[in-house]
Amino acid sequence: MDAFLSRTYYLNGGHDNTHGMSKLNARMEQIEGKSEANRIFYLSVPQEALLDVSSCLASNAQTQKGWNRIIIEKPFGFDALTSHQLTKSLLSKFQEKQLYRIDHLLGRNLIENLTVLRFANLVFQPLWSRTYIRNVQVILSEDLAVPTGRYFDGYGIIRDIVHSHILQTIALLAMEPPISLDGEDIRNEKVKVLRSIRKLEPSDIILGQYKASTGDKVDVYLNSLTPTYFASALFIDNARWDGVPFLIKAGLGLINHRVEIRIQFHRVPGNIYCERIGHNIDLATNELILRDAPDEAILVRVNNKIPGLGLQLDSPELNLLYKDKYKAEVPDSYEHLLLDVIDGDSHLFMRSDELAAAWNILTPVLHEIDRKNVAPELYELGGRGPTGAYYLWAKHGVPWGED
Fold first, then answer.
1. Domains of the chain with bracketed CATH
2. Could you confirm whether 84 is annotated as catalytic?
């Protein structure tokens, strides 16, 4: 730590101060000397300051002796129009290959493992389509209340989590095989998925906001229309996924912390063991569960005979629990993503056309919510979320994947 801290410096230059950026550049040149030097700029600044900072940086602080890469934090705009304006301004100062739009949730091992499971295992490859998959559920459930009021109250869960993390997860899960692991090849396939997502129907969207009881210590005020919960059914209109519902559930202040992807397969046609499964045939549905929290694991639910003289079936889970199998330290999400920036690996960062495609999916919904002042359904802090989400799952014939 001492060795690292000896190589860190602080300089206060102001966020829209050209002179300050010139001072920063001079300080870096002093440290770099005459050797070739690359620079990464992490712009951890409010959205309203981003253009000032990036403009001053582009003109006064880029190295001429190596590459420059710029990390930008979400949200990347407020809707399709503001995002387009922001992107247009950034691309007037930098090349696309210099921009890294970071979302720490995409640095989780679960996300990186999606493509490994799909493309490195023959057992999954032929099953990965509408022919065998009945539905997909992407669940991000937080048991905590909103930690940062001003930021979240301005953007809500749709702009904060759904736009980047959820849609990027679906894109990686549903994309066609890329021609290589090169970041651009992967992003080419992701953007095709995002462009294929059908326009969202208002009836397929559930908004919620937690309500705190008198005894709850919630030190943040939320606007009455700011959603802390979003559930929706997405459909991808292409040959692979036609008719398969992708069900999203993202919420704060829920009963537990849970991050997972559940892939439910079709029932076995003409299953001769139906009478041996029990009253609920859905319990016998094969599932692939990719879990990030509470404990990282890969689970496969299969049907199996219960030991004994009778012939009754059970649906246990084949379990790969990471903490039992792997003793290696799991790096923090930011460690993973920052290393990718250093290596120039861009596949977990949104390209400008991906960004636009994602906003095109959500902007009509956001405008409809604002235009009609749609009030979210209230749910108890520490509860299971709005009851409307259960009706949504039932509408699409999906058994709710709960603990």
1. 2-102 (3.40.50.720), 108-332+357-395 (3.30.360.10)
2. no
